Amino acid sequence: MLFDSLTNEEIVDSESALEFMKEATKLASSADLEDLSERVSQKAECFKGYLSPSFVNDLDEGNFERIVSLIFSIGRKSKRLIDANGFENLRNMIRELLHGIDPVENRFSLFVNQVEGIEEKMRINFAGELLHYSMPDRYWLWTNWIWDPDNNTGALPLVVKEDVDLLGETEGETYLRVGEAMSYVNQVGNERGYSRVGHGKFGIDVFLACVYAVYMYTVFRVKLSDEFNRILPELPELTRRVLGVQKLKF
Fold first, then answer.
1. Which end of the chain is more exposed for a tag (fewer CB within 10 A), N or C?
2. How far apart, in whole angstroms, are the C-alpha atoms of residue 169 and residue 117?
3. What's the confidence (pLDDT) of residue 174?
C-alpha cells in the first residue's frame, strides 16, 4: 500500500476532523444527517440497479440520464455526453470502467482520457461516482470537492497532514492515493466517531461533504458580503447538492 510506512497519526489530522464535525453538527441536526445518509444509500441502489454486470448492457439513454442527474457537477450534461461520444460508445466505456479486467487505476485513467464533451475535472468526477456508487464495497469516491489537485483544495486536504502526497503520475494512480488516504480517515473516524454519520461505506462520504460545507461557510463568511452569505444554502442542502441527492425522489 502507498502509505504503509506511515501511521494513522502521520496521515490523519484527527483534531481538525473532529473540529469540522463539531461545527457541522451546529449547522445540521442528527435528523438532517440521517436523511442525507439515507439519500446517499438510495442513490447507490439506483446506480447498482442500472450498472451491475447483469444490467449494464441494457442501459438505455433514459436510465443514463437518471444516473447523470445524480452527479452534482454533470447533472444536466447527459445529452452533451451522448452527443459528444455516441451512446453505444459511452455505454461501452462505462462497462469497461466498471467491469473490465485491467487494474482499476488503468481503467480509471482510460475512462478519463477517452470521454469527450466535458472538462477533465468533470470526467474525474464522473468516473469516481460511477465506480463508488455502483460498487461501494470495492471503490471510493473522488471528486474535485473531495480533492482538486490543481489548487490543492477540497475536503480531504483539510483532514490529512500537509505532507501526505495525494498526487500520482496518472489520474488512476491519483485515484489510488486518494482512496487510501480516505481509508485512513475513515478508520480513524470510526474509532473517534466522526465518520459514523452515514450508513456503512457512505459514512466517509457524508463526513467529507460536511467538512467541505463547513469550509465553504468559513470562506464565504470571511470573503463575501452578508447579502451573498444569505444566498448560500444551509448546510443540509449544501451537502445534499455536492453528493448529488438534493432532488432524489424516494
1. C
2. 24
3. 97
Output phi, psi for 172, to 5 deg: -65, -40
* Residue 247 placed within a domain: no
Instruction: Name the 3-class secondary structure at 148.
Output: strand
Q: Which residues contact 137 (CB under 8 A, 6 or more apart)?
A: 201
User: What does the pLDDT read at residue 231?
Assistant: 66
Provide the greatest CA pair distance for the chain: 52
pLDDT of residue 80: 97
From CA 62, how far away is CA 78, in angstroms rounded?
Answer: 10
List all residues 6 or more positions away from 124 whose beta carbon is below 8 Å from its beta carbon: 112, 142, 143, 144, 171
Residue 250 lies in a domain: no
Is 13 domain-assigned? yes
Element (H, E) at 197: none
The confidence score (pLDDT) of residue 217 equals 83
Full residue range of the structural domain in which residue 207 is found: 8-242
Looking at the structure of the chain, the number of domains it has is: 1
- C-alpha 151 chain-centroid distance: 17
Question: Minimal CA–CA distance to 64: which of 19, 95, 105?
Answer: 95
Q: Residue 202 and residue 37: Cα distance in Å, rounded?
A: 7
How many Å separate Cα 64 from the centre of its chain? Answer: 19
| CA 60 remoteness from chain centre | 24
Q: Where are the alpha helices (DSSP H) in 28-152?
A: 30-51, 61-68, 78-85, 87-99, 104-114, 120-134
Residues of the chain scoring pLDDT < 50: 1, 250
